[in-house]
């Protein structure tokens, strides 16, 4: 019969391994896993703070002709793409997704809100092809170009 102490030890080990995998830690001992998790949490806090600052900047913008704000961040495999506008942008999602397709970016996860504001967040990775790999700036320019083309097409209507 397995003792209660051994159950607790096994449960702790399982939780540490889960924490290790969630934070992409390569550490083997408890202390290092926890330190890696702490660093990971700090990085996430900084990302949230940057995104909140970007959103606050966009919301305080008085310029109604201002294009939606685009931020792109490189991930281990792919990119985190954020598009934000303080006002609704009907029809903007389609040109953004079309440019992803043109660039060979496959969307693995996405969130969209289009009610009062336009918020789009996607994780996309390059499809396996030979040739140059793209960077944050390339993705930012392509999404910006899609937004500009969308804006021009909606202003003509």
SSE topology string: HHEEHEEH
Number of domains: 2
Q: Please report the number of helical segments.
A: 4
pLDDT under 50 segments (min length 5)? none
CATH level 4 superfamily of the largest domain = ACT domain
CATH architecture group name of the largest domain: 2-Layer Sandwich
Query: What is the overall shape?
Result: elongated
Q: Using DSSP, what is the number of strands?
A: 4
Q: What's the CATH class label of the largest domain?
A: Alpha Beta
Compute the gyration radius: what is it? 21 Å
The strand line-up of the biggest sheet is 1-2-4-3
- Structural class category: alpha+beta
Largest sheet: 4 strands, antiparallel
Distance between the termini: 76 Å
**What proportion strand?**
15-25%
Mean pLDDT level:
83
Helix content: 40-55%
Write the CATH fold name of the largest domain: Alpha-Beta Plaits
Secondary structure elements and pairings:
Blueprint: H1 4-22, H2 30-60, E1 69-75, E2 78-85, H3 93-103, E3 105-113, E4 118-126, H4 136-155
Antiparallel strand pairs: 1-2, 2-4, 3-4
Q: Could you describe the 3D structure shown?
A:
With 157 residues, the chain is α+β, with helices and mostly antiparallel strands. It has two domains: 1-60; 64-155, ACT domain (Alpha-Beta Plaits, 2-Layer Sandwich), CATH 3.30.70. 52% of the residues lie in helices and 21% in strands. The chain contains four helices and four strands, in the order H-H-E-E-H-E-E-H. A four-stranded antiparallel sheet has the order 1-2-4-3. Helix 1 crosses helix 2 (30-60) and helix 3 runs antiparallel to helix 4 (136-155). The radius of gyration is 21 Å and the shape is elongated.
């Amino acid at each position: 019969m397995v003792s209660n102490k051994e159950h607790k030890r096994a449960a702790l080990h399982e939780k540490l391994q889960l924490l290790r995998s969630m934070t992409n830690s390569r550490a083997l001992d408890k202390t290092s896993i926890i330190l890696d998790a702490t660093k990971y949490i700090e990085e996430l806090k900084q990302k949230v703070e940057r995104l909140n600052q970007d959103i606050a900047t966009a919301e305080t913008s008085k310029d109604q002709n201002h294009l939606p704000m685009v931020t792109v961040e490189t991930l281990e495999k792919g990119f985190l793409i954020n598009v934000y506008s303080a006002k609704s942008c009907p029809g903007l999602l389609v040109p953004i997704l079309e440019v992803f397709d043109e660039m060979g970016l496959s969307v693995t996860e996405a969130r969209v809100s289009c009610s009062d504001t336009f918020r789009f967040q996607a994780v996309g990775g390059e499809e396996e092809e030979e040739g140059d790999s793209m960077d944050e700036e390339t993705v930012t320019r392509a999404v910006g170009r899609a937004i500009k083309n969308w804006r021009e097409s909606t202003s003509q209507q």
